[in-house]
Amino acid sequence: MEITIKTKALEEVEDEALCFFLPEGKIPEGKRVKKLDSILSKASSFLFSSNDFVGKLNQTAVLYPEGKLRSKRILFVGLGKKEKIDLDKLRQASGTLCKKAKELKVKSYSAFLPEIRIKGSSISDFAQAIVEGTSLSNYQLAQYKTTEKEKIFSIKTLNLVDEKKANLKAIKKGAETGEVSADATNLARDMINHPANYMTPTRLANTAIDLSRKYRFKCEVLSLPEIKKLKMGAFLSVAQGSDQPPKFIIMEHKPEAKRVGTVVLVGKGITFDSGGISLKPSENMGEMKADMSGASAVIAVMAACAKLNLFVHLVGLVPATENLPSGTALKPGDIVKSYSGKTIEIISTDAEGRLILADALSYAHKFEPSAIIDIATLTGACVIALGHVGCGMLGNDNRLKEKIRVASQKSGEKVWELPLWEEYDEQIKSDLADMKNTGGRPAGTITAAALLQKFAGDYPWVHLDIAGMDLEEKRKPYIPKGAIGFGVRLLLQFLRNYSNFR
C-alpha cells in the first residue's frame, strides 16, 4: 500500500473517497466537518440528527456529495466517546475505515487527521496510528489461493491530508514510523500464517538471513553440530524428536552512531508443537504452527530496528525446532543438562518452550545486556488468566517492566503483570535434578517464568507470555482472522523509547 502526504483543503481533494474521524455526539464536531456540512447542504447534520450515525466507535457512514466535491464519496468513522478516545481507538477506527473502503471496492482514499486532542499524543502519533490501523487491516496472505483470486481486494493508496503545510513534517514522520511498524507486524503475520510444512526451522532461519541482507544487520545461524558443540542440552532435547534440523538464529543490530545499552530479545521458535510424547489432543492441533509467534516477532523487530537505525545495540536470539513424538523423542522422566550446566527433569514434553528458552537466555549473558526480554507462546494457563486480550508480563526488574508498560499504552498491545514470588520456586523443585520443567496446573504461567528466571541470571529481565495472542478467530478492526503478530509494535515502541530516553 502506498502512503502519501498532501496539503489540501477538503474541497480540493480529488479521490475515490474523502474520510473523516468523528467523536461520538449529537452533532458533527470540528471546523472541517462544519465546512463540509455547509458544502453538502447540512447533510452531515441530518445524518447525526437521524441517529443513523452518531460517531460510536467503529461505526461508519457513507455520503455522496453529488458533484459538490471533487471526491466521489464521503466516509465517516466513529471514534467513540470523547473522554475514552486514545491512540488505539484511532487505530481501530482506521482499520474499520479500511475494511469499509474494501467493501465499497475503493482502491484509494484520503483521510484528514481527527480534530481532537489526546493527552500526551502528537500529530505525528495520530499519523502513525492511522497508518498502522490501515495497513494492518489491509493485510492478507493469499499465496496459497488457486481459485477465486479475483475476489481478493486490497487498498492501493492511503492519502493523509492536512490544510496546514507546517504540519506535514510531523505527519510524514509519524506515517513513516507507522509504515515500518505495520510492515514488520505483517511480516511476522506471514511467518506465522505459513503452514508448518513450509515454515520449518530452516526456512525461518533463511528468512532471518534474507532480512539481514536487505536491512543490513548481522545474522549467524548455528546448525546441529554447532549447537551440540555449545552443549545446549535443553534445546537439543526438544529437537531430537524431529527429522527437521534445529537452528539457533543469532541476529545483531549495532549502529555506528553513539548507542545506548544492549538489549537482547529472545523468541520461542517452535515451528510446530505436537506436544511430543505428551501428545496434545488432535482438535485444533494445526494451530500449533503458531508456536513460533515469539520468534517471528523478534525477527520482524530486528528488521524494523535496523530499518529505523535505532541507537540501541540490539541482539535477537531464536532457538528454532519442531516438537514431535518419535522413537528418538524426549520422554517424561528424562533429565537434560542445559547450556548453563543446570539440570532439568522432564515432567511433560509439552512444556518444551521453556527448555529451548532456557539455553537461549543463558547464551544471552555473553552480550552483557542491560535488558533481556523473552517473548513466547508459553502456557495455556496464561490464556485462562487473561484470555485473548493481552499478554502476561513477569520479570525481575521493576524499571524494565515499567518501560514495557509505557510502550504498551502507546502501542495498544496490552500487558498485565503477574507476580514472581519466591514461594513459586517450590513447585519446580526436583528430587533428582536441579529443577523440573513444570510445576503442575496451579500458577502454571508463573512457575514457567520461575524456571526461566533461573537462566536469566542477574541481568534485568522480563518474560512476555503471549499465549492466546498468537491467532485471532474472529476479525477485529485491524486484526484479520489468523496471525496477530502480537509483540512487534510493543517491542518496537519500547526500543524507540529506550534508544531516545534511556
CATH architecture heading of the largest domain: 3-Layer(aba) Sandwich
Structural class computed from helices and strand pairing: alpha/beta
What's the overall average pLDDT, rounded?
96
Overall shape: it is elongated
What is the domain total for the residues?
A: 2
For this structure, the CATH topology of the largest domain is Aminopeptidase
Name of the level-1 CATH class of the largest domain: Alpha Beta
For the largest beta-sheet, the strand count, sense and barrel status come to: 9 strands, mixed
Corresponding CATH superfamily of the largest domain? Zn peptidases
Helix content: 25-40%
Q: Mind telling me the C-alpha Rg?
A: 24 Å
Q: How many beta strands in the DSSP annotation?
A: 20
CA-to-CA gap between the ends?
A: 34 Å
Low-confidence stretches: none
- How much β-strand is present in the residues? 15-25%
Total of helices: 14
How would you describe this protein?
- The chain is of the alpha/beta class and 502 residues long.
- The chain has 2 domains: 2-164, Leucine Aminopeptidase, subunit E, domain 1, CATH 3.40.220.10; 182-501, Aminopeptidase, CATH 3.40.630.10.
- Helix content is 36%, strand content 20%.
- The chain has helices spanning 31-39, 43-49, 87-103, 123-138, 168-193, 201-215, 224-229, 233-239, 293-308, 353-364, 380-386, 398-411, 444-456, 488-501, and strands at residues 2-7, 18-22, 60-63, 74-78, 108-112, 157-162, 218-222, 247-253, 260-267, 269-273, 312-323, 335-337, 343-345, 371-376, 391-395, 415-417, 435-436, 461-465, 471-472, 482-483.
- The strands form 4 sheets. Strands 7, 8, 9, 10, 11, 14, 15, 16 and 18 form a 9-stranded mixed β-sheet that branches. A 6-stranded mixed β-sheet has the order 1-6-5-2-4-3, covered by helices on one side.
- The mean pLDDT is 96.
